[in-house]
Amino acid sequence: MEKHPHLLLWKAVFVLIIIGLGFGVYASSKSIDYTWRWERIPQYILSTEPLEIRSPFDGTVTVDETNKLVTVESDFGDEPLVIKGFDTLLINDGDLVFEGDPLVETKHWNIGPLTWGLIMTLQLSVVSLIFAVIIGLFTGLARISSNPALRYLSVTYIELIRGTPLLVQIFIFYFFIGTVLDLDRFTAGVAALSVFTGAYIAEIVRSGIQSIHPGQMEAARSLGMNYVQAMVNVILPQAFKRTLPPMAGQFINLIKDSSLVSVISITDLTKAGREVVSSTFAPFEVWFAVALMYLILTGALSWAIQRLEKRLSASD
């Protein structure tokens, strides 16, 4: 007997819902009399606009179209300019050219501003993630420490950071701490994201460690391990498996939260999107493209963590 007799039906329901959402977006655009201009977007992601090569001096042109070779002999005795290969010839053999005159065009792949913004977002997220994990791990351990000073400091840090908005913290790190320590925009942004995310990771680490039965620590200590050895070799590996799903959610939040650093003029994906909107006057297309690029980042991270989770569960 089939375990899921209505599986095909529910898949059809899912497809209909997606189609309905797509139609809703289309109908909404029609209701506000909006003309979609998707053809404007690709050039801001990856452009193939031709690169124009100009003459650096006055001279005479020699063209060998068979071998795709252009030579410019200088009138002032400078070393000749030799161009090997071109797509479009803008001058003729024997022409006299002056400094700055266009000679040839070649196809050239250019990374668009949205792609540069995506790269900046990726850099911010990766660096912040590394520091956030380090901060969260040590703060989580301090949170369950028997030392009152460490415990109170960790609780104060966690409650202070979780109780204030990230946007406010970014301003404090950039305008106050950044001014005192002479931090650039990127460093201030990374510091704010790391400290903010580290507070949440600390609580995830604490809950993961406390979910392990106390007998595990006692057994490790009875085998002659000290506290640090028992924590590193016995407790943390088990806690890591249990905290992987909430940790993945926090990592994804970090990527999305990185959009807030645009307020301190870091040209991440969100700021690049605003700049493209101002030049294309196509806000819906640009923001849908930006949302898709964020989705690609978070989806890739989610997929990687799911694969890791399955591998760890298979090793049990």
TrEMBL record:
Q: Which residues form the ABC transmembrane type-1 domain?
A: 118-305
Q: Which GO terms describe its biological process?
A: amino acid transport
User: Keyword annotations for this protein?
Assistant: Amino-acid transport, Cell membrane, Membrane, Transmembrane, Transmembrane helix, Transport
Taxonomically, the superkingdom here is: Bacteria
Q: Where are the transmembrane segments?
A: 7-27, 116-139, 160-180, 286-305
Signal peptide range in chain numbering: none
Q: How does the protein associate with the membrane? A: Multi-pass membrane protein
| InterPro entries in the record | AA_ABC_transptr_permease_3TM, ArtM/GltK/GlnP/TcyL/YhdX-like, Dup_hybrid_motif, MetI-like, MetI-like_sf
Give Gene Ontology CC terms. Answer: ATP-binding cassette (ABC) transporter complex
Q: What are the protein's GO molecular function terms?
A: transmembrane transporter activity
Location in or out of the cell:
Cell inner membrane; Cell membrane
Function of this protein? Part of the binding-protein-dependent transport system for glutamine; probably responsible for the translocation of the substrate across the membrane.
Q: What family is this protein classified in? A: Belongs to the binding-protein-dependent transport system permease family. HisMQ subfamily.
Q: Provide the protein name.
A: Putative glutamine transport system permease protein GlnP
Q: Give the species.
A: Marinomonas transparens
